[in-house]
């Protein structure tokens, strides 16, 4: 049986852009484990910019928002209005 190989040439940014937040976090963990990212430098950089590490609830919430963003055209008018009104309710906090 003949064997074929296929090569796909994609840029790292294309790969990352297609990942969910959970997949990006898994990628970051892998890069840390493999020694490509220094965790002390990462933590120090986050602390300097006032960024806290996300917890599992943050990740689930952000993934849900990403899913809604990708499927916006499937929402009913009522669902879309609900989401927009919910966001408006909290705009003054930022």
Write a structural description.
The protein is mainly alpha-helical. It folds into 2 domains: 11-53, no CATH class; 55-94, no CATH class. 62% of the residues lie in helices and 0% in strands. It is built from 5 helices and no strands. The protein has helices at 12-17, 21-33, 39-48, 56-70, 77-90. The longest helix is centred in the C-terminal third of the chain and has 15 residues, at 56-70. The chain is flat.
In N-to-C order, the SSE pattern is HHHHH
The chain-level mean pLDDT equals: 83
How many strands appear in the DSSP assignment?
Answer: 0
Number of helices: 5
Largest sheet: none
Beta strand %: under 5%
Radius of gyration: 19 Å
Which structural class fits the helix and strand makeup? Answer: mainly alpha
Number of domains: 2
Low-confidence runs of at least 5 consecutive residues: none
Distance between the termini: 62 Å
Assembly state (oligomeric): single chain
Q: How would you describe the shape?
A: flat
Helix content: 55-70%
List keywords for this structure.
2 domains, 62% helix, mainly alpha, 94 residues
Structure, briefly:
The protein is mainly α and about 90 residues long. It is flat.
Can you lay out the helices and strands and say which pair or pack?
Layout: H1 12-17, H2 21-33, H3 39-48, H4 56-70, H5 77-90
